[in-house]
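quick one, 208 residues, struct below
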Amino acid sequence: MSIYEPLEEGTHPFYGLKWKVVQDLDVDLEHFKDFDIIATKGTGRYIEPDTICDSMDEFQAELDSGKYAHSQPLYMLAHGQVRLSLGKFGDPWDSGQCGFAAIKKEDADNLGLKPEEYESFLNSAVKTYDSAANGNVVGYVIWRDKVCPTCEHKEEEVLESCWGFVLDWGWGSMDAFVKENIEQQLNYFTDKFGEAEHAAKAGIKSDD
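---
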C-alpha cells in the first residue's frame, strides 16, 4: 500500500472496506501530453517544447509547414509554479504568450477528430497537461483488514489499486473523483462479498 499521506480517505459501512486517495508522484508527463508545444528557447527553462522557434518568422514558417491540423496561442505563467493555458493569465509581469499549442495532422487522424472538435480537444489537452505538470495526479487504494483465525494476526488485503488520474480542477475535483471512481468500486465489492456470503449461508443450509 502507498506510504504517502492520504488526500482523502474513508471507511465503507459494509465488510470492513476502507479507501484512500493519495497523490501520484510517479508520473511521466509525456503520458498526459496529447498536443505539440511550439515555443521559444526561453520556455525550455520551464517546460520542454517539441519545436523551438526564435523569431516570428520561424513561428510562422513552422505553423505553415503543413504538419498541423490546428494551432492556438499558448500562454505561460511562471510565478512560484508554472502554468499553461490557451487563455491569457492577466499578469503583465510573470505571464505572456510563449508560443503555440498544436495538433499534428497525423494525431488528429489517429484520434478520429473532426475539424469542429479541434478547439475543444486542444483546450482539454492543455488543461490536462497543465494539471499533471502541477502535481494534480492521484491514485486510490481500496482494502480491508483481515484477521487470521488461528494467530489473530491482522494484515491488510488490498482489493483494488489504480493510479494516474488527473484532476483538471486540482483538489477541488476530489468529490467528483471519489463518486465516479471509488464509490463504484466499493459498490462492486459490496455486491461481490454479499453474494459470497449468501452462497455460503445457502451451502450450510443445504448441508443440513
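The beta strands are 8-11, 17-23, 36-39, 51-52, 68-79, 81-85, 95-104, 137-147, 154-166.
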